[in-house]
Amino acid sequence: MRIVIIEDEKPNATRLKNMLLDISPEMEVMATLDTVTASVAWFRQNPPPDVALMDIRLADGLSFDIFPQVSLSCPVIFTTAYDEYAIRAFKVNSVDYLLKPIEKEDLQLALEKIEKIRQPAGSAEMVQQLLEFFRQKEVTYRSRFMLPFRDGYKTVLVADVDFIFYAYNVTHLVLKDKTQLAVTQTMDELEEQLDPNQFFRANRQHIINVSSIDSIQNSLNGKLRIKLKRDAEREVLVSKEKVPLFKQWLDK
């Protein structure tokens, strides 16, 4: 089976590839792509794979944006951090999904299902249904965290979070009073759970609150350097691929 992986987080892409080879050494990963732009260019220049594994959120947009630009005749398995209730609402036909963090058993079952069906799953109408679902559904974003505290728990309001960083395999909230708190959620999970009008995933290690930004400077290779109001020593870089999205986020 020939597979294309579309995933902008390199560790996730590597994990998917390793799981595929564990399932069957005969699996062929034709390409690993990380943006809508790169995916469109690849599909235009290469024969279709047997399956496309697509993360929904990419560095330069939603993977749904690929479909109006190319005609895909292969089944698609979407990977997403959205909750199961939301996923049931848009699951249709031979398109399947995998909920992050992805388990090998779920991936194997999804591939077996596609092997049985072997029907084109990339119709523009179906993809439009998925896109409209994400645009129209009423989303409730996280408003607080419940964290262990002494012999019990305490709540922390999202409104008090200045920025979030990932280091040493731990996700940390940094509050506006400079308090740092460890949380169990991954950066991918928090990116989905937090209001995108208020928070932006600048890179793999940082999610910033719009109110945390002190200044923005040009950096090398088309990147941007963000200085934070309450942590002047910290350097937050926005990758070249994410710069257009960052500018759109701020320019509202």
Automatic annotation (TrEMBL):
<dbReference type="GO" id="GO:0000156">
    <property type="term" value="F:phosphorelay response regulator activity"/>
</dbReference>
<feature type="modified residue" description="4-aspartylphosphate">
    <location>
        <position position="55"/>
    </location>
</feature>
<keyword id="KW-0597">Phosphoprotein</keyword>
<dbReference type="InterPro" id="IPR011006">
    <property type="entry name" value="CheY-like_superfamily"/>
</dbReference>
<dbReference type="InterPro" id="IPR046947">
    <property type="entry name" value="LytR-like"/>
</dbReference>
<dbReference type="InterPro" id="IPR007492">
    <property type="entry name" value="LytTR_DNA-bd_dom"/>
</dbReference>
<feature type="domain" description="Response regulatory">
    <location>
        <begin position="2"/>
        <end position="115"/>
    </location>
</feature>
<protein>
    <submittedName>
        <fullName>Response regulator transcription factor</fullName>
    </submittedName>
</protein>
<dbReference type="InterPro" id="IPR001789">
    <property type="entry name" value="Sig_transdc_resp-reg_receiver"/>
</dbReference>
<dbReference type="Pfam" id="PF04397">
    <property type="entry name" value="LytTR"/>
</dbReference>
<dbReference type="Pfam" id="PF00072">
    <property type="entry name" value="Response_reg"/>
</dbReference>
<dbReference type="GO" id="GO:0003677">
    <property type="term" value="F:DNA binding"/>
</dbReference>
<feature type="domain" description="HTH LytTR-type">
    <location>
        <begin position="173"/>
        <end position="252"/>
    </location>
</feature>
